[in-house]
Design brief:
Blueprint: H1 9-16, H2 26-31, E1 38-44, H3 51-61, E2 67-73, H4 76-82, H5 90-98, E3 105-108, H6 116-121, E4 126-130, H7 144-149, E5 152-155, H8 163-172, H9 174-183, H10 195-247, H11 252-268, H12 283-287
Parallel strand pairs: 1-2, 1-4, 2-3, 4-5
Helix pairs in contact: 9-10
Pathway: Lipid metabolism; Phospholipid metabolism; phosphatidylcholine biosynthesis; phosphatidylcholine from phosphocholine: step 1/2
InterPro entries: CCT, Cyt_trans-like, Pcy1-like, Rossmann-like_a/b/a_fold
Pfam families: CTP_transf_like
Length: about 290
């Protein structure tokens, strides 16, 4: 089942039964010999949840042998004020994160900066994030105090993938995606497309359909041509075999001709009449 939110029964039970009087050092957490799980907190926006997000959470979950991973997700209001508009709503982002296999608990409407009140309430031992500084309103790194206290553990960013990259791909191929969605039944109004652009995109879709249809026709012709040539080769081979079987040196007609030839020779050259002594009579004997 998906990870619970921090205000749900399973998460509350886990938090209430955590002995937060025991404070993990980094060495003790890595040894895996503590009396309880290490409560690690990771946070972010997690818009268009992708493999980079999943890898970050996987790293956080595997920082120590026994980890209970809490993930904070910032609200729409806070995110839009700090980083700009998101593609997904807050509820969509919360749901995406809680269905990640590495997550044990999700905190909705997470703060931009973590104070002691928040850390103590959620009984957080370590905070996991990449080392790139994230600026507060005062211009300081929001994780600076945590790094100074030794409770910040760095994770590695996944190169080549980010939410901004995904948005850039969509913007770059805007026409293709608009045409795709028009073909799938979305209206121009839903896509915020003008009347003229809608007609242009629909015309382009028709041209693409005709191009694909022509390509398929040519491919079918090519396949049929190959089939016809193959069948012709097979038939011609059968014809040659049949011809040789009938007219070849050892063929049926050759045998018939040889037999007929022998019979004709016998017909035109009958055997001589036998003598009284049983030997055949030759022409000289008849002349006498």
């Amino acid at each position: 089942k998906p990870a619970p939110f921090d205000d749900e029964a399973d998460a509350i039970y886990e938090r209430d039964h955590c002995d937060y009087t025991y404070k993990f050092t980094l060495k003790a957490a890595k040894s895996g010999k503590g009396p309880r799980k290490v409560r690690v907190y990771a946070d972010g926006i997690y818009d268009l949840f992708h493999q980079g997000h999943a890898r970050q959470l996987m790293q956080a979950k595997n920082l120590f042998p026994h980890v209970y991973l809490i993930v904070g997700v910032c609200s729409d209001k806070l995110t839009h004020s700090k980083k700009g508009k998101t593609v997904m709503t807050g509820d969509e982002r919360y749901e995406a994160v809680r269905h990640c296999r590495y997550v044990d608990e999700v905190v909705r409407k997470a703060p931009w900066e973590l104070d002691d009140c928040f850390l103590n309430h959620h009984k957080i031992d370590f905070v996991a994030h990449d080392e790139i500084p994230y600026m507060s309103d005062s211009g300081d790194d929001v994780y600076a105090a945590l790094k100074a206290r030794g409770i910040f553990v760095a994770t590695q960013r996944t190169e080549g993938i980010s939410t901004s990259d995904l948005v850039a791909r969509i913007v770059r191929d805007y026409d293709i995606y608009v045409r795709r969605n028009l073909a799938r039944g979305y209206s121009a109004k839903e896509l915020n497309v003008s009347f003229l652009n809608e007609k242009k995109f629909r015309f382009q879709n028709k041209m693409e359909e005709l191009k694909d249809k022509s390509k398929r026709v040519m491919e079918n012709i090519g396949e049929k041509r190959s089939d016809m040539l193959q069948k012709w080769e097979e038939k011609s081979r059968d014809f040659i075999d049949a011809f040789l079987l009938l007219f070849g040196r050892d063929g049926r007609l050759s045998h018939i001709w040889s037999e007929s030839k022998g019979k004709l020779m016998q017909a035109f050259s009958p055997p001589a009449s036998p003598r009284r002594d049983g030997s055949p009579t030759n022409s000289e004997d008849r002349a006498r």
